[in-house]
Amino acid sequence: MKEWIRDILIAVVVAVIVMQFIKPTIVKEHSMEPTLYENNYIFLSKQQYRFGELRRGDIVVFHTSMETNNGGEKLLIKRVIGMQGDIISIRDGVVIRNGEALEEEYTLNNHTAGEMEEVTVPEEKIFVMGDNRQNSMDSRDEQVGFVETKDIIGKAFFRVFPFNKFGFLK
After folding, report:
1. Torsion on CA atoms 75, 76, 77, 81, rounded to nearest 10
2. Which of 23, 28, 31, 139 is catalytic?
């Protein structure tokens, strides 16, 4: 009996420690297709940006001021396109960062609909977009706008489900 209780206590302690670093999350929208699909089960690194740098191209989950249908806080998952000081615009279906067209093989249809005048990413903020540009509420929308880096929950780094896509995210 003692060994059984000891094993349970060890498992609980390990689980608590792991949960300090990793947050399991389920994707609820289509905005990150074809990289992530609805009901994909992923892990976030909650400590990634305490020990490492935020990078363009990272897939992040962040807090918003929006609410879910049941009144809870709506979290969004998007890709970091621009960081502090970057100048972002959209012309002829192409995202331009600091005067250079981005090669974005990860986007659905390799096209970004609409035009956007140049904006400069403010200090301590990022510009994010979904990979499914035609179906993404992101920094192009005033409801989201620039995302404060303090609102980032973590970096998506590993997909658990579906099992045929099991592995690290690029």
Report:
1. -140
2. 31
Q: Is 58 within 8 Å of 79 (Cβ atoms)? A: yes
Residue 40, token pair as written in the block: 């994909």
Q: List the beta strands (DSSP E) in 11-72.
A: 22-26, 41-45, 59-67
Q: Per-domain residue ranges for the chain? A: 2-168
What gap in Å lies between CA 114 and CA 127, rounded to an integer?
16
C-alpha to C-alpha distances, 99 to 91, 95, 105, 148, nearest whole angstrom: 11, 10, 19, 23
- CATH label, 2-168, candidates 3.40.30.10, 2.10.109.10, 1.10.10.10, 2.40.50.140: 2.10.109.10
Question: pLDDT digit string (tens) for 6-53?
Answer: 888 888 888 877 777 888 899 999 999 999 999 999 999 888 777 778
Q: Which pTM was predicted?
A: 0.86
Based on the residue annotation, tell me whether 45 is a catalytic residue of this protein: no
Question: One-letter amino acid identity for 161?
Answer: F
Active-site annotation holder among 78, 125, 136, 155: 78
